[in-house]
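Hi R.,

Here's the chain you asked about this morning:
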Amino acid sequence: MADRYWVGGSGTWNTTSTTNWSTSSGGSSGASAPTISDNVIFDQNSTYTVTLTGSLSCANLTVSQGTVTLVTSSTTPSLTIAGTTLNIKSGTVWNILGTTTFTSTGSVTITTNSVTISGSITLNGSGGTFTLADNLTLAGNRTFTLTAGTLEMSNKVLTAGVFSSSNSNTRSINFGSSGKIVLNDSASSNIATLAMATTTNFSYTGTSLIELSASSSGYTKEIRFGGTESNAMNVSCLSSTAITYNLNGAVKDLVLNGTNQLFTLTAGAVVYGSLTNVGGTTVFDPSIPSLTFGATSGTKTINSGGATVDFSLIINGSGGTFQLAANLTLGTTRSLTHTNGTLDLNGKILTVGTSGYITAAGTKNLTFNGGTVVCPGGSTAWNNAAPTNFTTTAGTGVGKISMTRATSSKTFTGGGSTYNCTLSNDGAGALTITGSNTFTTLANGVQPTTFTFTSGTTQTLTNWSISGTAGNLVTIGASTTSAATLSDASGTVSADYLSISYITTTGGATWYAGANSTNGGNNTGWQFSAAPVITSSSGFFMLF
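And the predicted structure, written out as tokens:
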């Protein structure tokens, strides 16, 4: 390995010229042009320009004195640094428009002293470690590529237009506790700013953070990451212009924090962490089927920031808990499919679209904690299609499933499960309940309306809170001329203004339909009178 010092002021660096090279600092020119084994040193205490042409290489590169402009006339010239050091002093102008590639398989330190790199950078050293000694900034829309080796962030900030690492080589990033990659592509084009479609053999350590920010408007900037839960990274979308961010693949935590943003999905998109939509971001894409929440451990939060989420959601993280941090409203025709994991309403309101709340094969739990699921749909409003390993938990407060369709009928497909909540018919349209289910409470929020139970099924409940009003009867009946059964283990059931047909009551409680109710026939166990009021010896009234 030899040293090559630049001498003689401005000139051209190519593979043949000896005009500006010396073997010593300030020495005579005439030394051979540096090769990949030679150290390049710029230490003249003057102002000069070095024009690079062709494909150049060196071992280490140092700019220690003077004001040096390193420039190319196009993006064709490139520079390979095979050694362990790039150290350029503050004030250096790096206008090498081509790609600078680091190829060492050892430990490399990159020091830029706040100099903006006007070209692209590639790390391609199998087994090498490339450490940022300070923040590294690439100008404009330049690309930082991690091909092989480890990028050691050392809690620094790497800024580029595009971050690319789509291959199967062994490569990694150590973010540390506060390192981050800022991608500020401003090109007037649709582009993948995080370009990692293939993530085989990619990993990271520390707290990952990819921040996306773009100044051009009207274009799509894609988050393309083909990874899994183990290597998905945290992404924040921060643009204040009218930018579309498209999630094509997977992220860990996803933060949408900007204005005029449009957030879209490519089929198969997965969030393995939390979703946070800070005020001002529009979440909307009617053409994409669904977004999956897939974390398999811990508690992740879903906060739509008050925006309607116009795509379907899938909860599919075995062992994970997905907690609403704010009310969540899906688009008009959208569904929520619950496959694996716990969905914790956390006292919030989840409004699904007309395609409803659906269960799929897996182990899933719905925890209410005082929250409500609003189902505005019809035949698929609530569809417990895969009841095996489906459970509900009341938690704190009183949870509710609210069936709100008003203009026509709707169906609660119970699947024979236990619902530790209130099921309420809150729309005038008739509600059909299928399966033999268990409820904490059956209720209605409007009159008149209709409850129809599948003939031959039994609904087991703790509380009955269904009544009509004068002139607005609630109709209770079975789906055919064979009876359905209502069961309450003890106490007194008291109602009024009902019209009842083909309903059998059982379980130990005494069932009073009320004095203003109508016996439509084929009923068993009902008392068509008001529940008696008994005055105790102490003068208190007791209702039975």
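DSSP finds no helices and 60 strands in the chain.

Let me know if you need anything else.
M.
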